[in-house]
Amino acid sequence: MEYERERKRLVNSLREYNISEKTLNAIKKVSRHLFVPSVQIANAYIDHPLPIGYAQTISAPHMVAMMCDFLDLREGLNVLEIGAGSGYNAAVMTEIMGKKGNIYSIERLEKLAVFAQENLKKAGYSNVEILCKDGSHGLPEHAPYDRICVTASAPCTPLPLVEQLKPEGILVIPEGKRYQRLYRIRKDMEGNITKEDCGGVIFVPLVGDHGFNMLCGN
Ligand code: SAM
Fold this sequence. Notes:
Blueprint: H1 4-14, H2 21-29, E1 50-53, E2 56-58, H3 61-71, E3 78-82, H4 88-97, E4 102-107, H5 110-122, E5 128-132, E6 145-150, H6 159-163, E7 165-175, E8 180-187, E9 193-201
Parallel strand pairs: 3-4, 3-6, 4-5, 6-7
Antiparallel strand pairs: 1-2, 7-8, 8-9
Helix pairs in contact: 1-2, 2-4
């Protein structure tokens, strides 16, 4: 299989982050070189974010893996991702979850929504639905979600996302502008919310009605 040795080397380099075996197996299976622009193929298996055009990035593999572990993904879940970008994170989530379950992934930039959809098709993932819109509103038509993964940094967690999370659901989201933290938010059976700080991160901004407004610079 193409780039298999590079993928194995990448997976070994991720062990220092204490990533679970099920997530490492998923990273080993997904062809990251199919999710980057052709000029970046030589860098595809370096544990680094890479430019995908339009001032956006495909996240570093260790960050994708950590977020998947924080989400505690399993078979048969209803999952929402905000920030499809290249489609790579959705592909890794699909590998962990298997064919049962749904993944909806929202991207606000049309060219990237098409890029993500084409990459997923090339790589053989047909069960991810990419939608082009402002994901800071969530996706009420397919709610509630067992898991919500936000891959862009918000000023604070958008309320619609919390509302669209199922009881016992998990939402993972970076918050902040220059100084960003990754949070894991859990909703219990009574609807109570707990918020856990998972550490410092660097993401592009979540731009939208419940995100940063690039026009007024907030
Ligand atoms: N998950 C992606 C991947 O696997 O390649 C990486 C995502 S990139 C770090 C963040 C993405 O979020 C960008 O493509 C950006 O256009 C998108 N984004 C920012 N604000 C958004 C919003 N309100 N709704 C949907 N997508 C948004």
